[in-house]
């Protein structure tokens, strides 16, 4: 794990790994979405509205996976002091929030013809909305730590504590009566027809690759920004020293 603690070594790896994630991810997700929108059969009960499944489910998965990435990176930061852990957590926050918002938006669009309403305050929808607010809170805390030069421990602790919400999201349809359907895919079993299951898994895999590529891109951008700020500070310090030396000489 500490083998990639050196930013230069990480950047060399990320430089070729980023397109390796992004390009296949975009291709796989595009094919899966095209199948879902054009060729997938209509559902017996929900009709053509079921086609939003191919975007809604991957978005929900990556909203939760994004926060687990934050939590895992936060543990790594606090326990092992890995220098890139906080950067990885920050990089995962924005795409995780985007996928969570996309999940909520597509769920509302799907719910209107299926349930007759855009929104209900049931366990699954409410806990997913809480996740979006947790993302906003984490982004704000990490930005404050970066701007004020803090060590980010508060943001890391928040990232770990917020992970409690992920199993609540996962089990909410089992624990409480809900309009939301129960889990369709469980360990070793699936209630989804093969005509939907395999392209759905392909879409989830494609979007996961896109998520990984975006996180790597953001990590590279954060490191580049930090390096640029360090160079500016060194130049400013050198300029101050030169000015003091010149003033002393005068």
Automatic annotation (TrEMBL):
Tagged with keyword Acyltransferase: no
Transmembrane stretches, start-end: 20-40, 60-80, 92-111, 123-142, 154-176, 196-217
One family name in Pfam for this protein: Cytochrom_C_asm
Keywords for this protein: Cell inner membrane, Cell membrane, Cytochrome c-type biogenesis, Membrane, Transmembrane, Transmembrane helix, Transport
GO MF term (any one): heme transmembrane transporter activity
Record's signal peptide: none
One Gene Ontology cellular component: plasma membrane
Annotated membrane topology: Multi-pass membrane protein
Domain Cytochrome c assembly protein intervals: 37-180
Top-rank taxon, per record: Bacteria
GO biological process, any: cytochrome complex assembly
Matching InterPro entries: Cyt_c_assembly, Cyt_c_biogenesis_CcmC, Cyt_c_biogenesis_CcsA/CcmC
Compartments, as annotated in UniProt: Cell inner membrane; Membrane
Family from the record: Belongs to the CcmC/CycZ/HelC family.
Stated role: Required for the export of heme to the periplasm for the biogenesis of c-type cytochromes.
Stated name of the protein: Heme exporter protein C
Gene this protein is translated from: ccmC
């Amino acid at each position: 794990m500490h083998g990639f603690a050196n930013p230069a070594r990480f950047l060399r790896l990320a430089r070729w790994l980023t397109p390796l994630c992004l390009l296949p991810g975009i291709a796989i997700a595009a094919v899966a979405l095209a199948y879902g929108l054009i060729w997938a059969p209509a559902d017996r009960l929900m009709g053509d509205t079921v086609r939003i499944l191919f975007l809604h489910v991957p978005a929900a998965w990556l909203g939760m996976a994004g926060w687990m990435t934050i939590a895992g990176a936060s543990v790594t930061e606090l326990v092992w002091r890995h220098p890139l852990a906080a950067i990885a957590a920050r990089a995962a926050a924005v795409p995780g929030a985007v996928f969570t918002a996309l999940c909520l938006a597509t769920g509302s669009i799907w719910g209107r013809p299926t349930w007759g309403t855009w929104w209900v305050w049931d366990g699954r929808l409410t806990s997913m909305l809480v996740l979006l607010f947790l993302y906003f809170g984490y982004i704000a805390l990490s930005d404050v730590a970066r701007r004020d030069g803090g060590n980010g421990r508060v943001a890391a602790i928040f990232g770990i504590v917020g992970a409690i919400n992920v199993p609540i999201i996962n089990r909410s349809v089992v624990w409480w009566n809900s309009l939301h359907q129960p889990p369709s895919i469980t360990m070793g079993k699936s209630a989804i027809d093969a005509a939907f299951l395999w392209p759905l898994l392909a879409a989830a895999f494609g979007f996961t690759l896109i998520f990984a590529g975006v996180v790597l891109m953001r990590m590279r951008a954060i490191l580049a920004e930090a390096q640029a700020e360090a160079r500016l500070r060194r130049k400013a310090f050198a300029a101050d020293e030169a000015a003091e030396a010149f003033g002393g000489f005068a």
